[in-house]
Design goal:
about 160 residues; 4-stranded antiparallel β-sheet; two-stranded antiparallel sheet; GIY-YIG endonuclease; alpha+beta; about 30% helix; single chain
Amino acid sequence: MTFASKFKSMFTKPNREAPKRSLPTDRSYNSTNSRGLGGVKVLVKRSDVADEREKAVKNPMYEPGRPKEYRNSEPRKNVPPTKPGEYRILDKDRNITYIGETNNLARRKNEHKRSGKLREDDIFAWKTASKDSTSDTRREHERKKIKEHKPPLNKSRGGEGRKAI
């Protein structure tokens, strides 16, 4: 090989493609976050992230599907069960006026009727909790929903009532 050809080959790229890389799914890898951590390397295990997503899909906090609705004007239809769950009180325009979590949906609905929070034209919408949920996880979910929707009748930030056993 002559000097000219060696010199030329130093500045030309070889005609081959780089191997395609993908993130590992079952190994750990380091990633650097320039914001907040000041370039500190963080160990993240990809399989843990995937496991958490899969767990959330397999074990939802509440039963799947749309919430069931009790209308105060139709007292015999769709009565809430005596099970734990999350509920919302909606006004006639379907705006959320109250969000709560309880260990007995039927009892709580009656308490709201007596106190005047559940008026004649309001809707009591609820979802029963799955068997895997705990009072703490439901309370945390209630806090997040109150913070998100800011219902006018919620005086507290949520999760401050009696703890279910």
